[in-house]
Amino acid sequence: MVNTVELLHEYHPSLPKENWWRDNFVCQINGFWFLPKFVPSTFRVLNEFKPLNNDVILASFPNTGTTWLKSLLFSIIYRSSKESLVNHNPHDLVPTLEVQVFGGTEPSPIEIDNLDSRRLFSTHIPYQLIGKTLDSSHCRVVYITRNPKDTLVSMWHFTNKWKDVEYGPWPLEEAIEKFCAGIFPGGPYYDHVMGFKTASLEKPKNIFFITYEELLSDPNTHVKRLAEFLGCPFNREEEVKEVVKSCSFDILSSYEVNKSEEFPSWFQVPYNSFFRQGVVGDNKNYLNAMTIERIDALTRDKFHGAVSAYLIVYGRNQVCPISWARGSPREQDRNRSGESPMAKYKLRRSNCSMNTEAKYDRPRDNTVMVP
Fold first, then answer.
1. CA distance 371 to 361
2. For residue 188, is the peptide bond before it cis, meaning its omega torsion is within 30 degrees of 0?
3. 8 Å CB contact between 144 and 222
4. Tens of pLDDT along 114-123?
5. Is the dihedral angle over the CA atoms 173, 174, 179, 184 positive or is it negative?
6. How far apart are CA 166 and CA 262, in angstroms?
7. Which of 280, 255, 232, 234 is nearest to 85 (CA)?
8. What values do phi and psi take at 53, rounded to 5?
């Protein structure tokens, strides 16, 4: 984690740069890659953003389910205003700190703090950079991640809808190489995920870690968990079902605002680019067997070498378990022993091969999976 933002400013003029798509390049800040246009605003977030204790921050790597979770969190927190999703894109309702909030030249509108309402923001800034800022208050952080192969394919589709695409699309083969090398906007993916995963184990009361696949498999259960984590539980099951239904892909993608081909002022993609398919496993329609195995091997290497405590699941038939030694997420929240949660978990490696069955040390309904 960066100790002083001034150190970053000192090296800003000479930040490492790498080409990632045609003539477009990314800049490196402490091991992570950013689009040049968001480097100044990222510095502004780290320097100027003062989270309040009741703030909610949605953190994510790009293209991992951010749009859907924005709509869910907005509906959970502002229940009387959830109809706003009919006429507003989720990204306009939940602004991204380094894009809309601190991305302009004018003073940030959140400098005038409204203490009477709860603020909801998002960010793609990795925990290794923004962790000190988030830890300066008791704000709640929700982090979502997704199968790296689906993330890659989604980002490839998303990038090819940029305004610059008229000069030539981003070849999938190049996207694969850049993703595996970590030279990708927001990348490296694996470091980004592990930064927030590790922090969620150390601070379970403040950081909620979930995967897109997990949320999609049982949205009602996890929406209730999110509401409880945020301190605003539902009183009736019907309320949960209503939120899940109103934020479903079919409902959200049917609204005119989300079918619009207009470009927002804050990014170079049309609004309809945020709603493509919303399915799990779409990567199999684009990646060949050799590429899938390459990314699976990279994922095994990156996640096995870390002190993590969640299952890595590769599709339906390939499973490589990393078991929990004890405790469900709820039990972590109740832990008051003072012992670091990281000390409570141990890794159990298994050979990863076709049709390997996962061995669980805790109930399946609490399993956190990253395919």
1. 18
2. yes
3. no
4. 445 789 999 9
5. negative
6. 16
7. 255
8. -60, -30
Please say if 304 is a catalytic residue: no
Question: Of 184, 148, 190, which is closest to residue 302 (Cα–Cα)?
Answer: 190
DSSP 164-216: GGGG----HHHHHHHHHHT-STT--HHHHHHHHHHHHHH-TTTEEEEEHHHHH
**Which pLDDT belongs to residue 165?**
56
Across the beta sheet with 140-145, the strand order is: 120-123, 56-60, 140-145, 207-211
Buried b (16+ CB within 10 A) or exposed e, 32-51: bbbbeebbebbbbbbebbeb
| Closest to 43 (Cα-Cα) out of 59, 26, 25, 29 | 29
User: CA 89, CA 100: separation in Å to the nearest integer?
Assistant: 13
C-alpha 126/C-alpha 237 separation (Å) is 35
Of these residues, 9, 12, 91, 124, which one is catalytic?
124
Burial of 23 from C-beta contacts in 10 A (0-12 / 13-18 / 19+): exposed
Which of 87-91, 107-111, 120-124 bottoms out in mean pLDDT, i.e. has the lowest?
A: 107-111
The top-scoring range by mean pLDDT among 184-193, 252-261, 318-327 is 184-193
In a 10 Å sphere around its CB, with 0-12 CB exposed, 13-18 middle and 19+ buried, how is residue 13 labelled?
exposed
> Which residue type is seen at 218?
D
